[in-house]
Amino acid sequence: MEVSSLLIYRLGSLGDSLLALPTLRMIRQVYPRARITILTNRPVDARAAPLVSTFEGTNLFDEIIRYPVGTRDIRELGKMRAEIAQRKVDLLINLNPFRGRLSALRDWLFFRWAGVKAIEGTPWNERTVAFTTDEHGRRHYEWEAARIARRVQALMTVDLQDDRLWDLELTAREHAQAAELLGTEFAGGFIAASIGTKMSAKDWTVAKWRALFQEVSARHPAAKLVLLGSRSEWRISDFCLKFWTGPKLNLCGASDPRVSAAVLSRARLFLGHDSGPMHLAATVGVPCLAVFSARNLPGQWFPRGRSNVVIYHQVPCYGCDLERCHAHQKLCIHSISVEEVAQAAERMLGAN
């Protein structure tokens, strides 16, 4: 079909955006002359980087429509419908996860009401995430980037192993800004880390990060550490840096996601939670040592690449999807010891 106006529906923040990158790039390649608009949410947290800041300056989209996620405000919905209708959308591609059949039907009806001619990717009957079962009865869950790519398989093939599809197109100016922030002492070869999280269930705690930094720096006293994150994470990051004996630099709040990516591209290793900065490091090819809670299914939100080490304890209540865990007191992430992470860091630093 002839597509001159295309709408992509994708919610989420930094990590959600990055795992959609290969599919977004293939959509642009398949529809090079289409005017592409992305419909996404306004940030739900000040620490969450919006999609537009992640892909600013690329040719992945021409326009963006933002709305407050979960809104039932009739004025907001009317405004959004009018914005979509005026674009006379030929094709909408829905990249969001399954949220129930009623939600899928509501979205489909809304987009048809807004005049969208064709809709692809509506999640009518799929599980939250697909899985396969091996000969030992173990489930292997679908990676989020693969789920997104599967949504467009009727239109195109997305090769997630193609490094070109993961290219953030960082500019010379962004690399220069990163170099200025780092200075000569941190020009390259440092360990990067991000210890903040906007979700309580994912928090390994400041005490454990502090102990980890103390342990790793005792084994590698000359190693350099750079911390990244939001401005609100500067204080706790600075506190943890006091336990690092080597050169250290706190860049929390000092750069946007793209300059942070340029900073991360100079690192030898990334340490952090399941977070946007972790996905940013993986996208630019940095090996990640990631501490995961079990709120999501194993494999679903793991970082891109084959050089990563993910520490995930599959406790009986895994896959709960809770943002705050009261019943089990965060058994999954609290069961991960400092020594377990320190040993993994030692192996990765030896390999690098």
Question: What's this entry about, in short?
Answer:
This protein is an alpha/beta fold. It has helices at residues 14-19, 21-30, 51-55, 74-85, 101-113, 144-151, 172-182, 206-219, 234-241, 257-264, 276-283, 331-334, 338-351, and strands spanning 5-9, 35-41, 63-67, 91-94, 118-120, 131-133, 139-141, 191-194, 225-227, 248-250, 269-273, 288-292, 309-312.
**Strand-and-helix sequence, N→C?**
EHHEHEHEHEEEHHEHEHEHEHEEHH
Task: State the CATH architecture of the largest domain.
Answer: 3-Layer(aba) Sandwich
Percent in helix? 25-40%
Q: Which strand order spans the largest sheet, edge to edge or round the barrel?
A: 10-9-8-11-12-13
Q: How far do the termini sit from each other?
A: 49 Å
Estimate the strand proportion.
15-25%
Q: Give the domain tally.
A: 2
Record field, number of beta strands:
13
CATH class of the largest domain: Alpha Beta
Helix segment tally: 13
The major beta sheet can be summarized as: 6 strands, parallel
Fill in the CATH topology of the largest domain: Rossmann fold
- Mean pLDDT across all residues, rounded? 91
How would you sum up the global shape?
A: globular
CATH superfamily of the largest domain: Glycogen Phosphorylase B
Gyration radius from CA atoms, angstroms: 21 Å
Contiguous low-pLDDT stretches (5 residues minimum) are: none
The secondary structure category is: alpha/beta
What are its keywords?
six-stranded parallel sheet; Rossmann fold; alpha/beta; 2 domains; five-stranded parallel sheet; globular; 13 helices; about 350 residues
